[in-house]
Amino acid sequence: MPGVSPDPPPHRAMLVGMAEIRWFARRPPKPVRPLLIAVFDGEDDPARSGFLALSFMRDAFDAEKVAEIDVDAFVSYDEARPFVSQSGSQRTLDWPTIDIFLGRDKVSGREVVLVSFLEPRVGWRSYSTLAVEAIRSMNPEEVIFLGGQIVHAPHNVAAETTVRSNTPRLMRSLGLMPDHYTGPTTIMGGVQVELENLGIPLAVAWSSVPHYLAQTPSPKAAQSLVAKVGELFKLDLDASQFDAAVAEYEDAIAKIMESDDEVFSYLSRFESEEEEDETIGLEEYVSTDPSGLASDLAEEAEDYLRQIRRDID
Predict the structure, then answer these.
(1) What is the pTM of this model?
(2) Is residue 160 part of a domain?
């Protein structure tokens, strides 16, 4: 994040699965009954809605990075490149890691753990074990995963967040519906099942993402996630702080529509259809757009929203 000083060197490491948790304090923190909020970057987070929401929460909870986990054995560096930064005359190289932050809600005083996971390219079973152990190491009272759900709907309707849980206590206290999904799953889904089988209270929140903007960071979807998490767990989260970014996001798409007749026609079709949103997968949404306009739109949107991407990375 711009203006953030470099992390201090880690003082203590603890072996977890095939990797190490490297703590930045001499003694690992022991939060008391915290809420743990996690994001899995990649397929589970289209439009990076969960990532944006988690970044916002880091500031809202004054969260500090307390640990990181090496993921060298799991990533593909064709997609998750290391990052070179410079401070003064010195350059540093930052490798992709799982990052763990600890903060506190300003009103309730509740401790909040924020975890940013990567989607592994290899070693899914070992990575799933690593993720479960990392979460358990923070002794959470409750866990909620944040992600995006690709929908066949226009961008100018309200983003909706759906939250489900198979934990009876959370279902009762938060009024949640169960998650009955069976079939092929993502890494987040695999970790979810393992945590559920261990009896850890867990919910999963998905914010709706228009299929033609699945590759473009969406402050609108992130705002919906932040508002829902604040509502469910009674946290001091002011989702209205996304309003300016949402206005810029919608203005960017409006400019694209104005400048390209084909794109305008393509998006207008969604706006005029009166049908229920249908959740679809990445491969399926491409097949619904034989003209390729969705792909073109995503590329054009990147130009308009490049500043937003720079701000969150």
Answers:
(1) 0.81
(2) yes
